[in-house]
Amino acid sequence: MKIAVLLKMVPDLVEELEVDSTGKALDTEELKFKLNEFDDHALEEALLLGGEEDEVVALALEGEGNEKLLFTALAKGASRAVQLTGVQPGGSGEQATAFAAALAESSFDLILTGVQSVDDREGQLGPLLAARMGLPCVSVVTGVSVTDGGATVNKEYSGGVMAEFEVTLPAVLGIQSAQQPPRYAPVSKVRQMQQTATIESLTVGGAGGGAESEVTAMAPPEVGASAKMLDDAAALLEVLRGEGVA
Amino acid sequence: MSGVLVVCEHLSGEFADITFELLALANSLGAGDVSAVTFGSMAGKASELGSAACVIDAGCEDEYNPESYAAAVSTAVDAHSPDLILIGSTSMGMDIAAPVAAAHGLPLVAYCTTVEATNGGFACSSSLYGGKLGVSSQVSSPAVAMVLPGSCDGDAGRVAGSPAVNELAIPESAGKVRFNRLIEPEAGDVDITQSGVLVAIGRGIGSKDDIELVAELAELLDADLACSRPIVDAGWMEKSRQVGKSGFKVKPRVYIALGISGAPEHIEGMKNSATIIAINSDEDAPIFDVAHYGLTEDLFDVCEELVEELE
Amino acid sequence: MGDHRYQEYVEKDDAVIDGIDVSGAWNRMWVPREVTEYDFTFLDRVTDLSGGESMGWCYECAECIGVCPVDNVGSYGPRKLYRKLQIGLDLFDHPDLWLCTTCRNCLRVCPKEVDMMQIMPAVREQAILNGNVPGELQEMLQNVAEYGNPMGESARKRMRWLKKFDEPVRDLSKEPGEVDVLWYVSDYFSYHPRGIDAAKAMVRVFNRLGVDFGVLGRNERCDGDSQRLCGETGLFEELAEHNHALFEQNPHERLVVSDPHAYNAFKNEYPKLTGTEYNVQHYTQFLAEKTEQLAGMFTGEFPRKVTFHDPCYLGRHNGEYEAPRTLIEAVPGIDFVEMFRCKEQGYCCGGGGGGMWLDGLTADHTFERLSENRVREAVDVGAEVLAVCCPYEVSRFEDAVKSTDNDGKLEVLDIIEILDSCLGDD
Question: How far away is chain C from the Cα of A61, in angstroms, using its nearest Cα?
């Protein structure tokens, strides 16, 4: 079995996010990037699924910090790491197009991505990719087991209810959480990979992502610096009602 | 046709709240007639969808299926050419929006909290970066918008009526995704990281017996119980309920902290909750620095009053 | 693999041969006797490791058990570990691997020099490489690897504690140049609210004394010593390279640290990697040299009964017992009282060797926190204030004060806070 995992760096929310002078984009000066947390789960699920004979390939678009990211994936147990070059940075639509071009070249049985990311304003990568590749897709997956020619997946609804589906392979799955917390990559292993392993490079065409929307403004939501103090339980009840929980 | 197409969601034979929220939003746009796509036998409950001008019965099986439902919505878009397709930013919506947008070459805007009709298109505001930034965007019509649950008043969309029901002929599904079964959560086996509403107790609770009252409140609010470390240490609650550094990281829609002072070790585990409400008798408790709403009263009194009111 | 192997080595309760009971049960006084031939597979796996050798030297005298702080609140210690390894404990995949706080009290009394400070990191390193790392610890390691501090706070916000604080502090990342004292602030002093209180006190004291000091600002990263003891050798090396480069880039007469763990790292561990000796002092050592000057500056009194908790990594690991006491005793009006377990025999707060981030796991295997045990002792000697000088301790002990119902009876303060409180406003 051949499993592809798509990894993506996203702005780290630990840092303050600043809007640049255009008012329409993030100020990249102060930005720090980290692996999308759901992608980490997708990688973990792929590693849990992949046996001795299987191949787990981690793919990422060229970009700041992505090499370290791919070496880390190798340190965790991925069989190969591929960096896609020649892609203009863009929204999830463009990313899906780039990944679709890269994945079309080889026959994967499963393509795993994180279910969503903090910056996918144009939609989630998994289903966008599946639509471009004409593959079935299930999002919000919390468990995968591979059967003969297919996979059994658990998809999470709200309130802890899940649905179990059979999916014909090849398929794209948007992973919400792996069956185990993502494993730790010891620094020495990552460093060893940086010295001994190679990251393959694959050039894909900078094909457009299709119809898009235009960002007109970006701003933090208005919130008070600290708590709005309420007078009594009745006021609290009003707040709860406003939040739709009472 | 033009207008707005709302993709209805249902579970276990009932329309989900998001359905009515989307209907309310669709009607507020003033962008033409609102039609609602239903699946399975839900067209039989069309009378609940009175705020739609017409209901499109897309057939399909009763149980949600990512593949066939997306294909059916796509067929409905072909048949009705709406200017805007509203889909919930939900587990089901995530499967449907992208294939529909891709099939028709439409722009897609996700995580919308507001959508307004503008000249020749729509202005959307998306909540991105963990809610830290609101991103406004302009899309030309036709477009697909995924709307975050809780963004609109569902009650406004919950109007009884008798919309016309049109049956839609849908192509046979490719059958690559097949529904097996629903898995209900096991009783008593709560995953607090997945809870929408959490009522969390801390050292301020005083005695184990008081937990009962809080549990009662949690039940009335349809919330799960959680706690800070001292409560687990005291053996009053299970480790699976613990929020914080050595417990779980949670980010529910609403986090109600009762008698939790807000040690950094605790705050680390819950600071990303969408709305934080803190009740603590100490007005200087650091929990109020991260809370959106605060109340400095005896938590036992507050709980009693709330339970009384809610019952 | 597990403890079930124990069964193989225990005399049977019931062994009747040809009608004769040969089990010895009739002659047994308390429990079945154990046989003495063992399968050394698991012990060998430990002693085969570089650093793990001394585990095999144990001759089970059990001197260590009496002084092991974890045994005091549970059942632990090198001798017990040795015994478990004999009878089939796979230490590489067992909670016992994570209970040792590397406090060094066992090594102090061990006639065979069984060295947990070598054994633990060696075995833990293998466990981590095999993916066996407790969740709470993994998160800390990830935070340190990603952000350079265990809290997972933004590295850029490392100097945020100076906000709304008017005292001058030279941030060498912005104003480079030579300083007399390069003050390594450390993670808890930079990010933890109670640590920040102490950090501010340090600045005020330095400024009153006219110390020419600078800090590394947003470039400073975790010293890595606790991560090393957790077995994350690679991470430790990475941090050591980073901090070493900073020390080289910022010329200074001496390096003064807030944290005994950093002191241990810079004094004993960094030189092994970098080949450089650092002129490093714990802040209590630096200030103890200035006791006279301080004494002349005190304007206030501290008329309270105070006891002192020796940090393992300042005391037992590095032999410094006097500097903190010199400072405490210099404070006007102070009533200083020792706890029974002090100096060489000081009790451990539970935070060392990764214990700081293993509270959940430790709680499952002990009946009370080490910090709680220590707080009770401080209360027993009648102290109103528990003085500390390790950034891990304030939060640990304050928590323990609450959980042992001693709220209001015992205050936990860093020595620097006590000194600062007696120096007045200017």
Answer: 20
B62 plus B103 within the same structural domain: yes
Task: Specify the number of domains making up chain B.
Answer: 2
Q: Widest CA span of chain A, in angstroms? A: 65
- According to the model, what pLDDT value does residue B11 have? 87
Q: Pick from B51, B91, B50: which is nearest to B69 by CA? A: B91
pLDDT bucket at A181, cuts 50 / 70 / 90? confident
With CB atoms and an 8 Å threshold, state whether A161 touches B174. Answer: no
Whether the CB of A90 is below 8 Å from some CB of chain B: the reply is no
Q: What is the CATH number of the domain that holds B94?
A: 3.40.50.620
| Chain C CA closest to residue A183 | C131
Domains observed in chain C? 3-129 (1.10.1060), 152-288 (3.40.50), 291-421 (3.40.50.10700)
Chains that touch C (3 or more CB pairs under 8 A): A, B
State whether B295 and A232 contact (CB < 8 Å). yes
On whether both B213 and B160 belong to a single domain, the answer is no
**Are A187 and C145 inside 8 Å of each other by CB?**
yes
Query: By the CB < 8 Å criterion, does A208 face chain C?
Result: no
Angstrom distance (rounded) from CA C373 to CA C56: 31
User: What pLDDT score was predicted for residue C6?
Assistant: 52
Q: Which chains touch A (3 or more CB pairs under 8 A)?
A: B, C
Do A236 and B302 lie within an 8 Å CB cutoff? yes
Q: What percent of chain C has pLDDT over 70?
A: 93
On whether any CB of chain A is under 8 Å from the CB of B124, the answer is yes
C window 219-258, beta carbon within 8 A of B: none
* B211 found inside a domain: yes
Does residue B275 sit within a domain? yes
Same domain, B143 and B20: yes
Asked if B152 and B200 sit in the same domain, the reply is no
Any domain includes B74: yes
How far is B9 from B70, CA to CA, in rounded Å? Answer: 12
Q: Which residue, B167, B184, B206, sits at the end of a domain?
A: B167
Give the domain range for residue B52: 4-167
- The identity of residue C212, as a single letter, is D
Characterize the bridge pairing of strands B108-118 and B143-147: parallel
pLDDT in tens, C368-391: 999 999 999 999 999 999 999 999
The answer to the question of residue B181 being in a domain is: no
Question: How far, in Å, CA of C134 to CA of C123, rounded?
Answer: 14
The domain boundary, picked from B151, B167, B183, lies at B167
DSSP string over C42-93: HHHHHHTSTTTGGGGG-----HHHHH-TTGGGBS--HHHHHHHHHTT--GGG
Cβ–Cβ below 8 Å for B268 and C151: yes
- Which single residue is written with the structure tokens 């009006």? C333
Domain A2-218 architecture: 3-Layer(aba) Sandwich (3.40)
- Give the CATH number of the domain where residue B232 resides: 3.40.50.1220
* Average pLDDT along chain A: 90
Q: What are phi and psi of B123, to 5 degrees?
A: -105, 125
Of residues C260 and B300, more confidence is placed in C260
The verdict on a CB contact (< 8 Å) between C399 and B263 is yes
CB of B246 within 8 Å of any CB in chain C?
A: yes
Q: How many CB atoms lie within 10 A of CB C200?
A: 19
Across the interface, of C151, C357, C402, the residue whose CB is closest to B203 is C402
pLDDT at residue A224 above 50? Answer: no
Strand order in the sheet with B293-295: A228-229, B293-295, B275-279, B254-258, B197-201, B224-227
- The arithmetic mean of pLDDT across residues A162-172, rounded, is 95
- Cross-chain residue pair B177–A243, CB shorter than 8 Å: no
**pLDDT tens digits for B167-198?**
999 888 889 999 999 988 665 567 888 888 99
Domains in chain A: boundaries: 2-218
- The DSSP output letter for C178 is -
pLDDT at C26 over 90: no
